[in-house]
Amino acid sequence: MMKRQLTGIQNGDLPPEIMHEILSRLPVKPLCRFKCVSKPWRSLISHPDFVAKYSKVIENKDVFFQRRRLLFTFVRQEHHWLYSLDLDQFLNENHNVDVGGLVATPAELDFVYKPLPRGGRDWIPFVHYSSYGLFLSRICCGDFSFSLINPVTKESKKLPKTPIWRLPMKPLFRGVSLNGLGFDYSTNVYKVVNGQHYDDGTVFSVYSLQTDSWRQIDYLFPYKALDFDGIVVNGAVHWLVRKVADRSLVIISFLLAEEEVREIPLPPIPGTCSSQLGVFRNWLCITLALPRAEIARTNNEFWVMKEYGVTESWTKMQVSKPYKELSHSSFWTESHDLMLFDKSLVMYNFNDGTFWNLSISDLSENGHFGSIGIYVESLPSLTDQEQHKRSKEDKSTQ
């Protein structure tokens, strides 16, 4: 399919396979400009097969490092401001210590929320809901609508309203539900997962960017949510939940390819601690939160699952910097991990326990970091998806 798309492109004597390999390794911004060269170029670069190939190239470590960007929110007066940051502008694999006072300069992604009512004050960015170039955001009042956003192409797409499968909904209001975004490699399709709560369990539905529609998973799953933010690891979205039957804690995973739900047992955490599910590098992670009566105390450990799905692989990790809240950015080098310790960005060295704070310019002190995550600059065009969908619909009616 993609070879035929090259017809008419002035590519000299290069075979189509070589052209594809060259293009798949270029940055996103030049490729977006190349779409304007000619219709064949636009057709090739926009084609779903090429977009999928472009995404898979990041399995190459060097390419992945070149395209990764930090995505984070900064909260001032309950308003979430969204920024991206090229960490490689001042940090690379050879830095093992503080980089001597260098300050990183972020880029504000205000195109996302400026057009919204009240300047986006009712907007919540799920920064960790990111998957190969797209991330998920939501209006936290009114219709509680979702939007998919590509920070590189500056495109956003409002998703159709999630159908209500049963009444009444739980818990307190309709806007609260299990949510997650992932990429199904078996079909090269972006999927948004939503779980609606009822007294006797949860009903899942899946939105496909390819079809621009929601589908219900025809089964009532006997779980009630504790964390609403889905964590994507190993081709599945994960949440920490309680079983309806006995209220015991368990992690559930929604497999994006099979669209099935499975259980993953927790590590042996103390019964007096509440837990939060996260991701540490490429592993599932459980951080501990002490009860309010012990709020003056802080933690020095957390758990990671080093072999996915294997209960015995839960491993306790120690940190020299105590925390009350801890999350990983999914950014790490050979020597350091970028983590959020109590709303401060810290580069932490797990080899020797040393750390240093990450300095970012243009952020006032009357606020704090909200959530952090990594996105990889990639090609999925939300407008091109619409065009491909309309093209298919037109052909089916002919």
Description:
The chain has 398 residues and is mainly β. The chain has 7 helices and 25 strands. The longest helix is centred in the C-terminal third of the chain and has 16 residues, at 382-397.
Helices, by number, come to: 7
Mean model confidence by pLDDT:
78
Largest beta sheet, briefly?
5 strands, antiparallel
Shape: globular
- What percentage of residues falls in helices of 4 or more residues? 10-25%
Gyration radius (Cα, Å) is: 22 Å
Entry summary:
The protein is mainly beta and 398 residues long.
What secondary-structure arrangement, pairings included, does this model have?
Blueprint: H1 2-5, H2 16-23, H3 28-34, H4 39-46, H5 48-56, H6 61-67, E1 68-76, E2 79-85, E3 107-108, E4 123-131, E5 134-139, E6 146-150, E7 155-158, E8 178-184, E9 189-198, E10 201-208, E11 213-221, E12 223-225, E13 231-233, E14 236-243, E15 249-255, E16 260-264, E17 274-280, E18 283-289, E19 299-305, E20 314-323, E21 326-332, E22 337-341, E23 344-348, E24 355-357, E25 368-376, H7 382-397
Antiparallel strand pairs: 1-2, 1-25, 2-3, 4-5, 5-6, 6-7, 8-9, 9-10, 10-11, 12-14, 13-14, 14-15, 15-16, 17-18, 18-19, 19-20, 21-22, 22-23, 23-24
